[in-house]
C-alpha cells in the first residue's frame, strides 16, 4: 500500500478561514484580561436573577454596574463551590423543575461524566453553548495543526468515536456523555464541513450501543478508505490502543469481509449492519495487500502497523496527557515514526485550552487558555514545609486570582464560571503555568487532586503513581514482559494499611522478576510521609497483584454497562469502588509483596 502522490491543498476559502480564526485568537489572547472581565459580565447578565446567584447577589441591580466592579463584587460575594454544592440544584433540574435555577435558558440536556475519577458519574448541565465551544476549539486547533501537518481537502479521518446510552431523567431530560451530545449535534456535521475532513464511519456505527461492534466497523471502514485517511483520531489515546489490540485479534476476519464484501456475523445491530453493508463491496486485491502487511507486521509484534496500513496519514490525534500518558509507549509502537499530536484540554464541565504547538511531543505539550469560553480563576497552591513530626507535605491554598495575575512556574487549581450555570466551580485539576501566548496563560496539566493514594500521613498523586509504575514496568520490559494496564487501591481494612497495585501483563515473566518490579515500585514512592511510614511499618509492604488477561476489558465493560462511552473512558488509576475491586480481586492470579524496606 503506497502513499498517494498528491498535492496538498486546503483551498483558498479554507485558508482564509484558518487565517481568520487564528487572527481572532491572537486578538482575544492579547486582550485576555479585558476579555475575561467581559466574559464574566456576559455570563452574569445572561443569568441574572437565577436562584443560585440570587442567594449571593440578592436584589442587587448588577446590569448597570461597571464590568471591573462586577468582577470584584462577584469574587467577594459568591463562594468557591464543588460539584457537591451544585448537585441538589442539578438534581432538581433533572427531576423536571423548570424554574431558572442555574441558567435563565431552560436546560433540556445533561452530561454524564465518565465516573472513572470518583467512582460514580456526575450530572452536569449541557447547552447549545457546549456544542458551539466544542466546534470552535476543534476548528481553532485544526487551523494550528494544518500549519505543521497540512492535510488533503476532502480527506477522511479514521475516528474511533463512540456514543453512550442516552437516558431519560425523572423530569424527561436527556442524559448522556458530552461527546454523545456533540456527535448528535448540528455542530459535529459543521465541523466536518469546515475542517474539510470527514469521518470514515456513519452515524449508525458511532451510535451503536455495542462498542465492540462499533470498533470492528471503524476498523473495517478505515481500511476500505485506506488511501483517503489523513489522520487517526479518538477522544482519548486509550480508545486507539484498545482498537488496535482488537485488530490484532480480528484482522483475518476483517480481511475476509473486505475480500468478499460481506460483514461478520459478530455485527448483529440491524441499523449498523445495514449502514455498513450499504458502503462495502468486494475488494479482493485490497484484502490481499492488507493480509500481506498484517502477516509481516505480526512477526514484528505489530510495530508500525498504522503507517503501513494508512500511508497517507499525517499524524495520530488524541488526548494523551494526564491519565493517558501510560498508553503512549504502546501508541508509539503502533505508530512508529508517525507523529503523535495531543488534543486540547477540556472536561465535561467545559473546554479550557488549545494546543498551539502540535509538533511538541505529548509529554511536553501545554494548552493556551481560551478566554471567551468561561471565566477562569486560579487558586495558588504552595507546598507546605515538611511537618517534622508527621513527615507530611501538603498544599497551602491562597486566595484565587484572575487569569491576568497568574505567574510562570506556579501551580494552581482551576476554578470555572461557565455559561452553562456553574459558578466558581472547583474543577479539581492542578495545573502549572508554563508561559504565555500573548496575554493568556499556557498550562501544563499536572494531576487531579481527588486521585490520591493515602493510608496514613502519606499523600501520593496520580503522577506519583504513574512514575512508580513506569519504573516498575522498565524492569518488566527488560525481561520481555509488557504492561497492558494498571490501577491501584489503598487497603486500609487491615492494619497496617498498604498500597495494592493491579497489573495486567503480556508475555511470560519469571516470578522473581515480578517480585523485583514490586520492590522497585515501593521504593519509587518518595513522598516523605510514605517513606517514614514504611520505615516504621505504619504502612505495610506494597502488594503487586497480577490479574488474568482480559481483566481490564471487564473493568471497561462494567463502566460501559453503567452508561459510560468508550470514547470517554479512562481506566481509574486509583479506586475504592467495591464492584471494581471485586472484579480485580477475583481475577488476580499472583500476588507479590515488596521487600524494599526489609
UniProtKB/TrEMBL annotation:
Stretches assigned to the GH3 middle domain: 368-448
Highest taxon of the lineage: Eukaryota
Question: Does the keyword Ligase feature in the UniProt annotation?
Answer: yes
Alphabetical UniProt keywords: Ligase
One matching Pfam family is GH3_C
Residues in GH3 C-terminal domain copies? 464-578
Task: Indicate whether Protease appears among the record's keywords.
Answer: no
Q: Which InterPro entries match?
A: GH3, GH3_C, GH3_M
The family classification in the record reads: Belongs to the IAA-amido conjugating enzyme family.
According to UniProt, the name of this protein is Indole-3-acetic acid-amido synthetase GH3.10
According to its UniProt entry, this protein's organism is Gossypium hirsutum
